[in-house]
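Narrative of accomplishments. A recurring question from our advisory board has been how the design workflow behaves on a single, concrete structure rather than in aggregate. To address it, we present the structure tokens for one chain from the evaluation set, followed by the sequence designed for it. No filtering or post-editing was applied between the two.
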């Protein structure tokens, strides 16, 4: 059986900026990190990524700045606190970043 061709071209969506007004209102710096596809000088930016997990009763987030090729970990006791801590880390520039190994 042949695959069905999509009606829209995924490449046309690439580079589109995603906006979530609720997230932007609550956690503006996190929203910007995850969605902004331009630097303040107008040059293209690869958006950041974040993975959330729990381990030993603690919420953890791995954040990766794809464009700058650095990543860091943040932890908290609840998922709300975790997201607020990540947001504050971006706003205060207090995230402990480590360079990608490759």
């Amino acid at each position: 059986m042949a695959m069905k061709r999509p009606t829209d071209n995924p490449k046309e969506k690439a580079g589109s900026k995603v906006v979530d007004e609720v997230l932007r209102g609550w956690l503006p710096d996190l929203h910007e990190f995850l969605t902004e596809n331009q630097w303040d000088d107008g040059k293209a930016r690869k958006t950041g990524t974040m993975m959330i997990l729990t381990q030993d009763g603690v919420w953890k987030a791995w954040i990766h700045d794809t464009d700058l090729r650095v990543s860091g970990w943040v932890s908290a006791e609840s998922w709300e606190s975790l997201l607020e801590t990540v947001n504050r880390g971006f706003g205060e520039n207090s995230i402990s970043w480590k360079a990608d190994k490759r």
